[in-house]
Amino acid sequence: MSSSDKKSKRKLHQATNVVHSGRDPHANFGFVNPPVYRGSTVLFPTVEKLLKRDQPYVYGRTNTPTAKALEEAIAQVEGGEATALTASGYQAVSTAILAFVSAGSHILMTDSVYHPTRSFCDKMLSKLNVETTYYDPVIGAGIEGLIRPNTVLIFTESPGSQTFEVQDIPAIAKVAKKHDLWLLLDNTWASPLYFRPFEHGVDVSIQAATKYIVGHADAMLGAITSTARAAPHIARSKDLMGVCPGSEEAYLGSRGLRTLATRLAQHQKSGIEMANWLENRPEVARVLHPALPSHPQHDIWKRDFLGASGLFSIILKPATPAQLAAMLDGLKLFGMGFSWGGYESLVIPFDPSGYRSATKWEAEGPALRFHIGLEDVDDLKADLEAGFKRLGAAR
Ligand SMILES: Cc1ncc(COP(=O)(O)O)c(C=O)c1O
């Protein structure tokens, strides 16, 4: 899409936006997809232009047309002013936080955050004399009580990694605004389609594009989308740290984005069906899925989100490690591995009790995180049914 079309395209439905944003086929000889520009050196036609850096692209690290096409597309779809791509979702987290802190700063971090984000705070920010206070993810407006004179940002992730607490982002945004703090959100679970961060007062939205945007488990990629006020800080942080995505990865992100709305609708449908089915299994104590009425923050999810992706957790009734292994090791369709957001179903066991610090993780039995992929749900149920049988037979 040419930039002059951008404004009018913003009014289109999101399923149309993901197909058309960040593309201008006729600028590429009519080829539908933006091509992969690989490169480090970018030549200048004159010394004057070189000295003034007077052209759209100056060096492979600072940007390429391939990355820029996806940046424009995500900014438009997520509703922010600008997007900066990074080499991974984790790098999007670290680049975004480092954009706003300096030695002596204090930040507020949700206790339910993706564990490597926690490690970044505990092992890297601490070295830079930046202090982190973890807070209860469901604290809402109560977060005001944790603000100190040197607090600079509030980091949220909703729902929380693995444990799926839904945060009251509008209430937290109100506090952030009152105290002039930056509000950051890891919006990966909802993707740019199912939560509109900038309509809820968020300044910076982080996507592990590795998940649903790439969508095929074949590339690492991150995206930081921000408001006009936050964008220059993000751009500077990205530049100073030499953050850049690979061209091939940016291309795969663009290609994945085109089918995001369709894939996500199916992940949502199958995910809710599987969550309901699991909720009725005798082996399951609880299901942690924001779209289920049994979820403690279901009302907040209903109020703020536009949908649910395919990732949720369950707590089993008490089971031995041998029973759990019998169930998981024999699964045929559910793969076991980290990450999610691809087309395939996945499962991992998890236990946050060892690292939570502001809240206590209490579970009746072992916890499992599921990603429901694009397979037929009857086949997925049969796979799990056989797994539950093995669990019941083991000791
Ligand atoms: C919520 C969330 N944020 C960030 C990341 C990091 O993304 P990446 O694996 O691309 O570094 C992940 C990865 O699992 C994640 O689940």
Task: Give a structural overview.
By secondary structure, the chain is α/β, with parallel strands linked by helices. The chain has two domains: 12-257, Aspartate Aminotransferase, domain 2 (3-Layer(aba) Sandwich); 260-393, Aspartate Aminotransferase, domain 1 (Alpha-Beta Complex), CATH 3.90.1150.10. It contains 14 helices and eleven strands. The protein has helices at residues 6-9, 14-20, 47-52, 65-78, 89-98, 115-125, 169-178, 191-194, 231-240, 247-257, 260-279, 298-304, 321-329, 377-393, and strands at residues 82-86, 106-110, 131-135, 151-157, 182-186, 204-207, 222-226, 284-288, 311-316, 346-350, 367-371. Strand 2, helix 6 (115-125) and strand 3 form a beta-alpha-beta unit. The termini are far apart. Bound molecules: pyridoxal-5'-phosphate.
